[in-house]
């Protein structure tokens, strides 16, 4: 990962490193090599595989979380994790457990690829600036700088794939009783675009941007910082002879990172999902409450969504679905980090870069 010290020359292919880095490379007449381009492609593949594997592994919990977030408060069908999973299985069967996962993977594979790649490149750029400012060529990224790199990566990846996330949320909450069925991601995208306009594809984008800063930022910062601390301190005897952490230890670091990030950002995720449902013609029955809704599902913005949610359902509604999300996020983030590093190792991409 990008927490290790890096060579300045290996930042030549970065597209998001600041102008100062580009100027330095130009001055030194360093050009991208074929090896470096292959390395980038392999990193993107590793990030995509990591995202697809991790999300599929926890797809039932992901769907239940969204159902809990957006279900009509006057017609509760899902009251908890165990009950909710049983209800989905009883009413929709095995396929119901994975509804929306295809769209989610179609979104998360490019999202994860861009996110991991952007994080590595942003980290290199930030590290270069930090070393220039500090005057210490041996300086390393601090947890705060890692948080900033992670936040940049999260915003870039989320913005690039947000329309797919928006329609994924709607497809996920569809049930057999829904009056209108999206037949897939492309049908959903075209329908929303035709009926609600282009801006509808970015409903809930603002709380997503705000939420991604602590969520993705803390994920990377906590994960990288824990790894560095364990390697440097050799705490608990978890470091091998090659100064590398085992898979189980990295899983634990990823789990800790996921827990911290999702707890801080969760209310913004709830608001994002609810805003995505606004303006949906023939909305899913879980949203409308089978026609028995007492509160119109209309929000004029993020603040209005927060206000109405708390006023009509209480503060606890901002954490509705937190339990299945916690159960999901911990293994999901952990699997994603470890899969990413394992795939990079298989593809021959160096994870540790030394001076």
From TrEMBL:
Query: Keywords for this entry?
Result: Membrane, Mitochondrion, Mitochondrion inner membrane, Repeat, Transmembrane, Transmembrane helix, Transport
InterPro entries reported for this sequence:
MCP, MCP_dom_sf, MCP_transmembrane
Q: Where are the Solcar repeats?
A: 38-125, 141-229, 245-346
Q: How does it sit in the membrane?
A: Multi-pass membrane protein
What is a biological process (GO) this protein takes part in?
transmembrane transport
The question of whether Transport is a record keyword is answered with: yes
* SUPFAM superfamilies in the cross-refs: Mitochondrial carrier
Gene Ontology cellular component terms for the protein in this record? mitochondrial inner membrane
Q: Where is this gene product found?
A: Mitochondrion inner membrane
As for family, the record states:
Belongs to the mitochondrial carrier (TC 2.A.29) family.
Family matches, as PANTHER family: SOLUTE CARRIER FAMILY 25
Task: Please report the name of this protein according to its UniProt entry.
Answer: Adenine nucleotide transporter 1
Q: Supply the source organism for this entry.
A: Dorcoceras hygrometricum
Q: What is the lineage of its organism?
A: Eukaryota, Viridiplantae, Streptophyta, Embryophyta, Tracheophyta
């Amino acid at each position: 990962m990008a927490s290790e010290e890096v060579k300045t020359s290996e930042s030549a292919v970065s597209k998001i490193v600041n102008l100062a880095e580009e100027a330095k490379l130009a001055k030194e007449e360093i050009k991208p090599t074929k090896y470096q381009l292959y390395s980038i492609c392999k990193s993107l593949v590793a990030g995509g595989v990591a995202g697809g594997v991790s999300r599929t592994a926890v797809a039932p919990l992901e769907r239940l979380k969204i159902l809990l977030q957006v279900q009509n408060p006057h017609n509760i069908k899902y009251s908890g994790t165990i009950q909710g999973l049983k209800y989905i299985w009883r009413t929709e069967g095995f396929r119901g457990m994975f509804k929306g996962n295809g769209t989610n993977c179609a979104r998360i594979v490019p999202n994860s690829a861009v996110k991991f790649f952007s994080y590595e490149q942003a980290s290199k750029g930030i590290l270069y600036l930090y070393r220039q400012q500090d005057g210490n060529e041996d300086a390393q990224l601090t947890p705060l700088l890692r948080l900033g790199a992670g936040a940049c990566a999260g915003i870039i990846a989320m913005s690039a794939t947000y329309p797919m996330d928006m329609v994924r949320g709607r497809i996920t909450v569809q049930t057999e009783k829904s009056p209108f069925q999206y037949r897939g991601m492309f049908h959903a995208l075209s329908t929303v675009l035709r009926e609600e306009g282009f801006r509808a594809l970015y409903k809930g984008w603002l709380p997503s941007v705000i939420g991604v800063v602590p969520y993705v930022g803390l994920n990377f910062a906590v994960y990288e910082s824990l790894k560095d601390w364990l390697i440097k301190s050799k705490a608990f005897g978890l470091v091998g002879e090659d100064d590398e952490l085992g898979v189980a230890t990295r899983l634990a670091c990823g789990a800790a990172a996921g827990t911290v990030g999702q707890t801080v950002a969760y209310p913004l995720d709830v608001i994002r999902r609810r805003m995505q449902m606004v303006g949906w013609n023939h909305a899913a029955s879980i949203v409308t409450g089978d026609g028995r809704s007492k509160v119109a599902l209309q929000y004029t913005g993020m603040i209005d969504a927060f206000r109405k949610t708390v006023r009509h359902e209480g503060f606890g509604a901002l954490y509705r679905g937190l339990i299945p999300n916690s159960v999901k996020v911990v293994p999901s983030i952990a699997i994603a980090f470890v899969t990413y590093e394992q795939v990079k190792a298989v593809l021959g991409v160096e994870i540790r870069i030394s001076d």
